[in-house]
C-alpha cells in the first residue's frame, strides 16, 4: 500500500492507494501531525509520497518517521514536465507543487482539453492548461477567508463577522458587504479568467474547481463547471 500526503498551509490531507485504487481522503490540522499519528495511520504502508507547500519541518518529520520504520519516502516537487504536462514557469520549481499537481490531475481526467483550474483554499489559484498539455500560466489571489480578514485587519471602522452562507448580492450591513464582496471578487476573477483565456486563443472546454471553497464557488458561478475534491491526489498518484 502507498500513502499519498498533501501538506497545505494549515491542514494535511492524505489517502491510501491499494491495488491502484485511492481510499477516502483524511484531513487534520498541521499542528496535530505527530509521530504517534503517523504510526497509527501509516504503519502498514510500503511507500509514502508527499507534496508540501507548508513548512519544511513537517516534511522532515515525516521523512524521519519513514526512515525509522523502513518505509520508502518520496517528496514530489514541481518540474518542467510530467507525462504530457509542461510548466509555463521559466523556473519550474517556483510553481507551487499543489498547482503543479492539479495540472497533472486535470490532464489525467480530461486529456486534449483546454481546462481552467481553480483551487480555492487559503489562496485561490487559477491556472490555464491547453489541450496540448502546455500550462499557459495563471493567477494567485487571496482566498475567501484571507480576503475577509485582510479588509478587517487594514480598516479601523469596518466591523464584520464571517458569514456561514455565501452570496454575491449587494449587502445591507457591513458584514454582508465584506462577506459578499469576497465571493463576488473571486467569481469576478474566474469570469475574467475565461475571457482572458479566449484572448490568448485558448477556448475553455472544462472549468474545474477544487479546494475547501470549490463547491461553494461552483454554486455561485453561472458557467458550467465540475468540482473535483481530490484533484491534487489524482496528480500525486501519477508519481507512483
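-> sequence recovered:
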Amino acid at each position: 500500500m502507498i500513502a499519498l500526503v498533501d501538506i497545505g498551509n494549515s491542514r494535511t490531507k492524505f489517502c491510501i492507494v491499494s491495488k491502484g485504487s485511492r481510499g477516502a481522503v483524511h484531513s487534520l490540522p498541521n499542528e496535530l501531525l505527530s509521530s504517534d499519528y503517523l504510526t497509527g495511520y501509516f504503519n502498514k504502508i510500503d511507500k509514502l509520497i508527499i507534496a508540501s507547500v507548508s513548512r519544511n519541518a513537517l516534511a522532515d518529520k515525516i521523512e524521519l518517521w519513514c526512515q525509522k520504520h523502513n518505509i520508502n519516502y518520496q517528496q514530489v516537487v514541481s518540474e518542467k514536465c510530467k507525462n504530457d504536462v509542461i510548466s509555463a514557469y521559466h523556473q519550474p520549481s517556483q510553481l507551487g507543487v499543489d498547482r503543479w499537481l492539479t495540472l497533472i490531475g486535470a490532464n489525467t481526467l480530461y486529456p486534449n482539453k483546454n481546462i481552467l483550474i481553480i483551487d480555492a483554499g487559503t489562496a485561490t489559484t487559477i491556472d490555464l492548461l491547453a489541450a496540448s498539455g502546455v500550462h499557459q500560466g495563471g493567477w494567485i489571489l487571496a482566498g475567501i477567508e484571507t480576503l475577509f480578514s485582510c479588509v478587517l485587519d487594514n480598516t479601523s471602522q469596518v466591523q464584520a463577522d464571517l458569514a456561514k452562507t455565501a452570496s454575491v448580492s449587494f449587502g445591507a450591513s457591513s458584514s454582508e458587504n465584506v462577506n459578499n464582496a469576497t465571493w463576488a471578487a473571486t467569481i469576478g476573477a474566474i469570469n475574467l479568467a475565461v475571457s482572458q483565456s479566449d484572448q490568448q486563443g485558448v477556448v475553455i472546454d472544462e472549468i474545474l474547481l477544487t479546494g475547501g471553497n470549490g463547491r461553494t464557488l461552483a454554486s455561485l458561478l453561472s458557467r458550467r463547471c465540475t468540482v473535483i475534491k481530490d484533484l491534487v491526489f489524482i496528480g500525486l498518484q501519477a508519481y507512483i
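The first helix runs from residue 35 to 42.
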